[in-house]
Design brief:
Layout: H1 26-39, E1 45-54, E2 60-71, E3 75-77, H2 79-89, H3 92-108, E4 116-120, H4 123-126, H5 131-142, E5 149-154, H6 162-175, E6 178-184, H7 191-195, E7 201-204, H8 206-210, H9 216-231, E8 235-238, H10 244-253, E9 257-258, H11 269-272
Parallel strand pairs: 2-4, 4-5, 5-6, 6-7, 7-8, 8-9
Antiparallel strand pairs: 1-2, 1-9, 2-3
Helix pairs in contact: 1-2, 3-5, 5-6
The chain binds ligand C2E and magnesium ion (MG) (3 copies).
Residues 182-183, 203, 239 line the site of one magnesium ion.
């Protein structure tokens, strides 16, 4: 029951990969786009969580919400299967609203009021024209302090309409939420560009973290993100930490926090907080 479908050729590590039942063609994408129309209303969406911890003493500082679609016939679908389709059809805005509401409601149920909640925001959602209103409303409905909400955006969010993306981030900062740049290092934006954005957290992409122990170029990238990120007063988080040697190295390098399968796979909130 833990099997999860990824898009063909994607996904790695401990996920099992299944192709059967998913045809990688236009017909399949159309079927998924149609099925997605009822996914929200029929309660087929689910959130799993991953803890974020300090590199030093591995204390939990927060959680990241990760979206899953429990398709009635196909099983559990990973975001790489359906998010690109949701982006193209515009359905991502509705999905994103649901994620924000659900994740904040889950967080509001927790006894520990210091934990932060990170929610991923897609490029299209960021420039949809309604994100700030949705975030403000979801925050007031849940009663969660805005400072506990981290919105994760990727560099690609700035490639289409950088001016709008920047303006929306400024609006969100004014609401009091925390902004993180996800998958950092994979895009084209320079640290000089980041300097002009209202960003608080850099998340080093897991492709660099995965290659860290052996590869000189990977550790050079991580070291430079740490140096310049810290120089700008930002918190640096390493994604995709899978083993102790990697975590040890990150700790030595002065990385602030990490996430990864080293603490188990994403799961329910109570499970990942243990
Ligand atoms: P992301 O935000 O960078 O999330 C990290 C991804 O890496 C997650 O995959 C997570 O399960 C996986 N991961 C975490 N630790 C490890 C590790 O140690 N090793 C390996 N191999 N993988 C690890 P997932 O859940 O499949 O999500 C993929 C991407 O989909 C996310 O990347 C994010 O960009 C997007 N996404 C997920 N949920 C949402 C959502 O609610 N809204 C939007 N717009 N995007 C989402
Ligand atoms: Mg993320
Ligand atoms: Mg990431
Ligand atoms: Mg990613």
């Amino acid at each position: 029951d833990t099997a999860m479908y990824h898009a063909k050729g994607r996904g790695r590590g401990r996920y099992e990969l299944f192709d059967a039942g998913l045809r990688d063609d236009e017909e399949e994408r159309l079927e998924l786009a149609t099925a997605m129309r009822r996914a929200v209303g029929d309660g087929e969406l689910e959130l799993v969580y991953q803890s974020r911890r300090t590199c030093g003493d591995r204390r939990v500082t927060g959680v990241e919400a990760l979206l899953r679609w429990r398709h009635p016939e196909l099983g559990v679908l990973a975001p790489d299967v359906f998010l690109p389709i949701a982006e193209r059809t515009g359905r991502i805005v509705e999905l994103g609203d649901w994620v924000l509401r659900q994740a904040l409601a889950d967080l509001a149920d927790l006894p520990d009021e210091r934990l932060t909640l990170a929610v991923n925001i897609s490029a299209r959602q960021l420039v949809s024209g309604r994100l700030t209103r949705t975030v403000t409303r979801a925050l007031s409905e849940s009663g969660v302090d805005p400072a506990r909400l981290v919105l994760e955006v990727t560099e690609t969010a700035f490639s289409d309409d950088p001016a709008t993306a920047h303006r929306v981030l400024d609006e969100l900062k004014a609401v009091g939420v925390v902004i993180a740049l996800d998958d950092f290092g994979t895009g084209w934006s320079s640290l000089q560009y980041v300097r002009g954005l209202p960003v608080d957290v850099l998340k080093v992409d897991r492709t660099f973290v995965a290659d860290l122990p052996g590869e000189l170029t990977a550790s050079a990238v991580v070291a430079s993100v740490l140096g310049l990120g810290h120089g700008m007063g930002l918190t640096v988080v390493a994604e995709g930490v899978e083993d102790e040697p990697t975590l040890g190295l990150l700790r030595e390098m002065g990385c602030d926090e990490y996430q990864g399968f080293i603490d188990g796979e994403p799961g329910s909130l109570p499970d990942v907080l243990n």
